[in-house]
Amino acid sequence: MLLCASRFGSSLAFMVHAGSLPATMRAWGMSGGEAGGIQTAFNAGYALSLVLSSWFADSLGAKRVFLWSSGASALTGLAFALFARSPDSALLLFALLGLTQGGTYAPSIMLVAQGVPAERRGAAVGWLLGAGSLGYFASIALAAGLSERLGYEAAFVACGLGPLLALLVAAPGLRGRPNRIAGARTQALRGAFRFLADRRSLLLTAGYTTHCWELLGMWAWLPAFLTASLSGSGGATAQGLWIAGAIHLSGFLSSLTMGKASDRLGRRAVLVAMGGLGAACSLTIGWMETLPVWLILPVAALYGFSALGDSPVLSTAMTESVEPGSLGAALAVRSILGFGAGGVAPLAVGLVLDGATGSGLGSGWGWGFALLGVGGGLAAVCAALLPADRPLPSPRS
């Protein structure tokens, strides 16, 4: 429970840029490309920290890496809250925040894998990622509401304190937990490349890569799209809650339900369904800009549900496909590919928006989200090509 609470605190800082985006674009006079570049800088730092933390978790222990990263994230969260006051400073400090955040994610999944049997692991990872989704909800709600009412500075401070809260919760939560060292670094190096020779692991890695493209691009730009669509529909705080709820409460629900569903129905079936549904939402929502709010919000909620629903299943399936001594290295390789692709997605969508506006083609939301839908479609294809798997036996049986 404390590990999940820590995941919630870390996630409070994750969506602060996306939630404050309308306010910062006005205050700083940013273009879509500049705004997307800040999120891409965070994603790049996050990807690098995922790689390093996953890699060294095998040789140093997941618990040790997790706690070190939690401390570093607390410091960078405070630095961003206090000193990000221009596009340049925000890009640098948000990148540093991303550089420390990754170590709170992959090692926490490894800690779950070490302590939960396979027949309940999907649900356990779902709870962990669900706590993160609640943090994203709070991050979007605070950032969108406070930035419009009190200014983006207040939003940055409120969300930047989240990683400090995470550290204060994580330390006592892991006090009695052993720091397991799975294997030597040389073994991790061999394992990092050996797992790619396995068909299931290769397809899971490819599916994760395309999944990240869609998910990270959606997280960066859907709040701004919904803000534009909800303009005039209540106050800023109400809008922030609607936006956050549509994206991240639905993601919280999907993390809880899809992880458990994969325990009962099999990993492949859930991955195919979520990938296909996410692609359909990406190809649809951008063209709904002028439709009534009561039509847009349900689609946005379904989008948040489907785009995140395969996350716990992909992570759980990877822990089952790779031997424990090489799991950290395998997650590192997966992070390079996944967040390498997902890291440039916000920038790509921003450039599409700028290009559409400059060419007189309207806002460009439809084309931007359609670009993200390519990732969801490819994720569904990778899942469909996975070897058939059977539901795991329940704890009772």
From TrEMBL:
Task: Tell me which PANTHER family the record gives.
Answer: CHLORAMPHENICOL EFFLUX PUMP RV0191, PURINE EFFLUX PUMP PBUE
Q: Which residues form the signal peptide?
A: none
Its recorded name reads MFS transporter
Would I find Cytoplasm among this entry's keywords? Answer: no
Q: Tell me a GO cellular component.
A: plasma membrane
Q: Where is the Major facilitator superfamily (MFS) profile domain?
A: 1-391
Q: Localized where?
A: Cell membrane
Q: Which GO terms describe its molecular function?
A: transmembrane transporter activity
Keywords assigned: Cell membrane, Membrane, Transmembrane, Transmembrane helix
Q: Which domain of life is it from?
A: Bacteria
Kindly name one Pfam family recorded for this protein.
MFS_1
Question: Where are its TM segments located?
Answer: 42-58, 65-84, 90-113, 125-144, 150-171, 202-221, 241-258, 270-288, 294-315, 327-353, 365-386
> Which classification does the entry list for the species?
Bacteria, Pseudomonadati, Pseudomonadota, Alphaproteobacteria, Rhodospirillales
Q: In its keyword annotation, does this UniProt entry include Lipoprotein?
A: no
InterPro entries, per the entry: MFS, MFS_dom, MFS_Efflux_Transporters, MFS_trans_sf, Sugar_transporter_CS
Originating organism = Azospirillum doebereinerae
